[in-house]
Amino acid sequence: MQKGKITKYTPFPQIDLPERQWPSKTITHAPIWASVDLRDGNQALATPMTVNEKLEMFELLVKIGFKEIEVGFPSASDTEFNFIRRLVDEKRIPADVTLQVLVQAREHLIRRTFESLEGVSKAIVHLYNSTSPVQRRVTFNKTKDEIKAIAVEGTRLVKSLVETIPGTQIRFQYSPESFSDTEVDYALEVCEAVMAEWGPSEDDKIILNLPATVEVATPNVHADQIEWFCRNLKERNKAYISLHTHNDRGTGVAATELGLLAGADRVEGTLFGNGERTGNLDIVTVALNLYTQGVDSALDLSELEQIRRVYERITRMTVHDRHPYAGDLVFTAFSGSHQDAIKKGMDLRAKEDTEGARWEVPYLAIDPEDIGRDYEAIIRINSQSGKGGVAYILERDFGLDLPKAMHPEVGMVVNDTADHGSRELSPDEVREVFIQEYVNLKVPMELLSIEREDFSQSGEVKVDAEIHMNGKSNRLTGMGNGPISAFVDALEQEGYKDFQLLDYRQHSIGGGSKTKAAAYIQIKNDDGSVSFGCGINANIELAGLRALVSAFNRAHPIV
């Protein structure tokens, strides 16, 4: 690798585009989507799909809502050819879906491609040849005129063969392969020559696909290329401008979005970005990016988990944990501050009538439920987690709605456990830590039994309690305005009270005959420290008393 002055690589030249318009535009509607999973995606697999797997993928793409699907390169192999024939023979092509087939601008390949289309109702014949300087010089050793002639002659042959399959509505697509690395004026020259040969109309437009076969510059340069081309194309009204970005620089999605701002009408790509080298455009990401901006993507990604499972099984590829929208961890927060903000946002939505309301939950750009994800994995606990995350897990999974004042201490206890184990804790493990540290504690004090007597005239309550303390049992009696205050009075009479009762909360857990009560008590000890305790019991009064005993026990640990 060179250091200092780099001579091996040079910056890609900028496009001369005064007063460019795309930076101030907004995407307001979905483009025409064209899936190339069965061609670009398939050719990039170490183990290409079988015919049956291609059929399953085709059905998945139809279900998602793709209306244009590039099904293969039928002249390249018998497998590709036979797959198309099976789609036709088994009547698997919906009436509103157009098959797209790819072919190089070579005579025998074009003729074989038309043989594959017999019986297809609607088809796009996608012709391509390479036009970039490096391809002209290194691969083909041909001049600009010779390269243009290949494109025009291929177009002429395609046009002449349309009449050989009269039952098929043929549309034409041309790609100057490596458009991204081709001089824009030359790419325009070739495309206009192809248009002149094909003779499109406003009612029957040609598709001019402008591939970023290799990403060679920043996305803004790609947008300039697209806008320059759209501005200078003589019969723009007779063409759909199509994008086909790759991801060599990791900016395929950005380049596509800016290309749409620059005037493109159509987008080719694959599910989750599968493709040669670093991949094709990820249509899932672009479509859901549009959705999060309030634009209907026209694709049904509401069952993204299921789509991902089918994709991974068929392609033998794995969607990365951090892949936008579909990754296992993309809705997961480990950071304490993130967890706290997410919990507050989710709590607020739960309390309000949010049907049709704007999605406003910190750190989550999209509601996981919109794409078939649940809230199970939004917050996960490790040593980086915080009070809000732990409280969220306990409430969401186990119905334990801890008082806010209790959150920091419980979060610290759980996080220390995760830190000592150097690992993530499951929700069950979080609950177990909470139970062991706070719930129905029996050491050093255990509440063995308690009886209550009410005095209706004074409104007071008398309790007779039996406790086990310091190795022996003891009976206590106290009076108060309720069982908890009466029990505190009983402790005080025996010399055990060294605290003040600060707060008491309770709520139900579950429903029906299995309903339990959870109670939380906060006490302030004589030394100024604060202790919390929780009691869980089918009897709400007993839950409160056990919470008080638990708080007392946490203030008097046995060491």
> Helicity range of the residues?
25-40%
Based on Cα principal axes, name the global outline.
elongated
Number of domains: 3
In the CATH hierarchy, the architecture of the largest domain is: Alpha-Beta Barrel
Average pLDDT rating: 93
- Proportion of beta-strand residues: 15-25%
Number of strands: 14
Q: Kindly, what is the distance between the CA atoms of the first and last residues, rounded to a whole number of angstroms?
A: 61 Å
Secondary structure class reads alpha/beta
Biggest sheet descriptor: 8 strands, parallel, barrel
CATH superfamily of the largest domain: Aldolase class I
Strand order of the largest sheet: 1-2-3-4-5-6-7-8
Would you tell me which CATH topology of the largest domain applies? Answer: TIM Barrel
- The low-confidence parts are none
Q: Which radius of gyration do the C-alpha atoms yield?
A: 34 Å
Number of helices: 17
CATH top level of the largest domain is Alpha Beta
